[in-house]
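Pipeline run #58 for the internal structure catalog. This entry was flagged by the ingest filter as a single-chain record with no existing model, so it goes straight to prediction. Upstream metadata was stripped on purpose; only the residue string is passed forward. Reviewer on rotation: M.T. Logging verbosity set to normal.
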Amino acid sequence: MRTWIIKATDGLKGLPETAPLAWLVAPSPSNLGFAVRTTCAALLALTIALWMEMDSPQWAPMTAWIVAQNSRGQSLSKAKWRLTGTCIGAIAGVTFLAAFPQSPWLLFPSLAFGAGLCCAYATFLRNFRSYALVLIAFTCTIIVLSAANQPDNVFMIALSRTTYITLGILCESALALLFAPRLDRVAKQEICTRLQDALCGACRSMTDLLLGQQDGLFRSQALMGSIPSLADQTEFSDIEMGPHSHAGDHARAALGAISTFLSRGLTLHIHMQAAAPLPDTFQTLLRKLSLLLSQVPNQIKSDNPVGAAIAIRQEFTRYRTDCLQRSVDDLIAFEQLRIQSDHPTQAMRDLLESRILEAALAKLLLELDIALAHFIATQTPVSKDHFRFDRHPEKDFTLALNNGLRSAAAICIGGLLWEITAWPEGSTVAMFVAVTSTRFSSFENPVQASSGFLKGALWAAFVSFFLVFWVLPEQASNETLLASLFFPMLVGGLALRAPNATGTAAAYNNFLPFMVGPANHTRMDEIMWFNTTPAVVFGIGLGVWAFRLVLPFDAAAERWRIRRKLVRDLRALAASETAFSTSDWIARSGGRLAQIIRHAGSKPDAVTEAYLAGAMGLMSVGLLVLRLHHVLAYKDLPPELTQPLRAVLHAIAHLRGYSLTPAQTASDALEKLLAATLKEKNLSTHLELTRAVSSLEVMRKELAQNAVFLDTTRRFHVPSAQKIP
């Protein structure tokens, strides 16, 4: 018996987090602590609301669950923006009802228009700033619908709702601060872990790329697609570390340098393929460097990551210096051969190619050095540090318009249903249609995001049925009411930390207090439950189905739209040097990669892989276009050599449909500039020509390989023989 118990216990300890019901039967200590803490916060908010004789005390525990997040930074940020959105929404609700008294056919279109504007603009914002605008939309709608039958009390209803929200936020924040001390140390460690993982992934990807392995491409795509979300998460660590810390800025700068490191590595990988066979000396250098990069993950994950990062910087600085010295030696040898021979020789071509590759390798190591320097700055801050680094998200007006129209249409449908049917609970239906449609309208794929929301509402209805019909009628005091709610809320808190049940658990926790309907002197009876709960579930279901009926999300169409934007941006970059900076181009390309990965879901197919390869190719071409712009801006080349470069940029800027003209133009320009480079005697001009040649060698290959991807006049298809079964 003792042996069996030990084996069973060991099995629970070793149960993976993704196993069915592992979150319930074997929760981790942190997940269990989160569930207990948030349950106590919700019940404390309910207790105070009952003690204060509030008319709708269920909103207080609902708010406590809504603002509870995985980290204190997330909770504090969401609480701040939720309170801001609620206050503005309450003012807007009073204004709307005063402007359209007894005029539903004017009120609902106006509400829908206002909610649509909020949801559309929320698309342009990041993290919980977007949530604040959503809160304005559905708080305004809730107050208007709650006061529709008693407009004289709209001010008190708005004030009451603001009070519930404030109470729930204060209770959750108080208990979280009580059980989460030393937030700055925890946040510092989270930043360290996040950057360690990114650096390890980047070094593993680069090792494969330098060795010519295909896995490096896939790893680079996945890591570059995850960097935007990692940068967004850094904002919450910023909040935990306080207003005077710049660790978050350094972390975002480190992630940006990692993106540049990966993009330069991809360009170098393509260049090595184009320059094959590589010189023996360069291959030897690559093998040594790959060995060093493969050792970085173990070093950076040591007990002293800062000391390891300093040592890694010193080691790679020596290699970077060696690359630059080799490049200079190759230049000297090249000049000696040029003096000895009037005509270009193969040895001269080999030396030129070696110098191009070694200079590219030195730039690659410089980006890794920058990333490590910012990593060190996050862990050992310096005094009087005023460093700032931020990225502004791209404004997607098409997505914003779709989001606004979806939410506006859903609210109009809910209001029309209430007016036509005169259902006594029609206001509840319209209210939860507004809550659901606005809550998920700012998501790129609202169908996927809201799929678990209806399931959570159904689970809340199922549990509330047993509580209302069997348990709560026998409870005579508020103390026993709270005891009855403890276990169902605790289970919901554990589910909220489960990997695949977050959306369902969030809806369950949010709506369970509403469906139970706790109050001081009454309990929700059977008739009230049958009137209210089905209306809530129906309203949520109607809001979820609105996303499938109004401008439904289509992954294939969205990928095509992203491809058109990629090509349009590349054309704009070729037409004007000031269209993008290098960092902006890499950040925007990384954001597009992240979108493609998100739209693919958990099982990307061959089409998605082809889109990712095309997006990475266009990112590399864009970086090389910027380099050509810089060569032209230096104005050191004679007109007969600048004309081929301008022809390449012109061919890209005016690309329409399927065409190999840009690739052919780049090939022609390469032939002319390579011949001129081998003969050029002026050192400054020779160096600029070398930069142009190195760019054109990669561009002609990438433009030819991605000619189909660059054709935005038709959908991008992968031959069926290449599709993954």
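catalog note: The first helix runs from residue 2 to 13.
catalog note: Residues 1-14, 720-725 have pLDDT under 50 and may be disordered.
status: ready for reviewer M.T.
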